[in-house]
């Protein structure tokens, strides 16, 4: 393994960390409805837990209402129960075959809780990035110890890893600020 391999590996893993963080932010709901909110909800389907999107069609009726159309007749009650028991704070209502999921308006206290949640998820992402930096630094030090690279090359590698970490953490901070602004917008 060379310094270029270490750097490339760290960049790829940090990019994946940012993508995972974006996925986590996507799950945190704001005042508007979007079908992705229900992605994390699983339904009991003949003894196994599957995502709602695998047993029903999830679409938007309007800006504040999600519709869930089960593909099988008997799944309506199970889907409704799964949505109600999820930690999303949603209360679905059945209308024949269609399940309507209205999005409640966010009050000030709930907005503050959501911003705290965003900061916590952001801090977890930053910790993951710092761990990746540590791994890259350890690999560079190992190469120096084995006399495969010089100490100057090791120092450059450590500096590159720090710059990459700083850029990635700045991107995470930017995403946190954007999501907080979205949540706090009335």
- Name given to the CATH architecture of the largest domain: Orthogonal Bundle
- CA-atom Rg in angstroms: 22 Å
User: Remind me, CATH topology of the largest domain?
Assistant: Topoisomerase I, Chain A, domain 4
Helices and strands, in order, run as: HEEEEHEEHH
Q: Which residues sit in consecutive blocks of at least 5 with pLDDT less than 50?
A: none
What is the overall number of helices?
4
The chain-level mean pLDDT equals: 86
Q: Let me know the CATH homologous superfamily of the largest domain.
A: Ribosome-recycling factor
What attributes does this structure have?
186 residues, Ribosome_recyc_fac, Gyrase A, domain 2, Topoisomerase I, Chain A, domain 4, alpha+beta, Ribosome_recyc_fac_dom, cytoplasm, elongated, two-stranded antiparallel ribbon, 4-stranded antiparallel β-sheet, 16% strand
Secondary structure layout plus pairing:
Blueprint: H1 3-27, E1 42-45, E2 48-51, E3 56-62, E4 65-70, H2 75-85, E5 93-95, E6 98-102, H3 108-145, H4 151-184
Antiparallel strand pairs: 1-2, 3-4, 4-6, 5-6
Helix pairs in contact: 1-3, 1-4, 3-4
Plain-language structure description:
The chain is an alpha+beta fold. The protein has helices at 3-27, 75-85, 108-145, 151-184, and strands at residues 42-45, 48-51, 56-62, 65-70, 93-95, 98-102. It folds into 2 domains: 3-27 and 107-184, Orthogonal Bundle (Topoisomerase I, Chain A, domain 4); 35-102, Gyrase A, domain 2. The strands form 2 sheets. It has a 4-stranded antiparallel sheet. Strands 1-2 form a two-stranded antiparallel sheet. A hairpin with a 2-residue loop joins strand 3 and strand 4. Helix 3 (108-145) packs antiparallel against helix 4 (151-184). The longest helix has 38 residues, at 108-145. The radius of gyration is 22 Å and the shape is elongated. 23% of the residues are buried. The mean pLDDT is 86. Residues 21-184 form the Ribosome recycling factor domain. Keywords: Coiled coil, Cytoplasm, Protein biosynthesis. It comes from Roseateles oligotrophus.
């Amino acid at each position: 393994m060379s310094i270029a391999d270490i750097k490339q590996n760290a960049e790829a893993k940090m990019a994946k960390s940012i993508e995972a963080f974006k996925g986590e932010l996507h799950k945190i709901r704001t005042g508007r409805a979007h079908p992705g909110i229900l992605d994390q909800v699983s339904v009991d389907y003949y003894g196994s837990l599957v995502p709602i999107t695998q047993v029903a069609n999830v679409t938007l009726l309007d800006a504040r209402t999600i519709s869930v159309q089960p593909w099988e007749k008997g799944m309506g009650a199970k889907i409704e129960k799964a949505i109600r028991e999820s930690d999303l704070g949603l209360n679905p209502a059945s209308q024949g075959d269609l399940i309507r999921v209205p999005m409640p308006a966010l009050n000030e206290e709930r907005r503050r809780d959501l911003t705290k949640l965003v900061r916590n998820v952001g801090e977890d992402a930053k910790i993951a990035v710092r761990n990746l930096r540590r791994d890259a630094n350890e690999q560079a030090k190992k190469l120096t110890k084995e006399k495969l690279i010089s100490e100057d090359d090791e120092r450059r590698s450590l500096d590159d890893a720090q710059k990459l970490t700083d850029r990635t953490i700045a991107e995470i901070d930017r995403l946190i600020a954007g999501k907080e602004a979205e949540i706090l917008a009335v």
